[in-house]
Design goal:
Layout lengths: L4 E2 L1 H5 L10 E4 L2 E4 L10 E2 L2 E2 L5 H4 L13 E6 L2
Protein name: Cytochrome b5 domain-containing protein
């Protein structure tokens, strides 16, 4: 993991659109979902990358189990 800290505005730049990287924040950590096929184009089941999805992931069928497969790229702070 890097020592990078993302603000809400910085994270929003990583929305997966136009070839940009796709990052999501969960519980204070920022994960790279760029190469995750279901996140192609920065969108997944109505959600968009570049946001804090902490409240959303707990409602997903897979919950947080998918996080262990992702790369942490930094920390998130509002």
């Amino acid at each position: 993991m890097t020592d990078k800290t993302f603000s809400k505005a910085e994270l929003a730049q990583y929305d997966g659109s136009d070839g940009k990287k796709a990052y999501v924040a969960i519980d204070g950590l920022v994960y790279d979902v760029t190469d995750v096929k279901p996140w192609a184009g920065g969108k997944h089941h109505g959600q968009t990358a570049g946001q804090d999805l902490s409240a959303v992931i707990v409602k997903a069928p897979h919950k947080k189990s998918v996080l262990e497969k992702l790369t942490v790229v930094g920390n998130y702070t509002e």
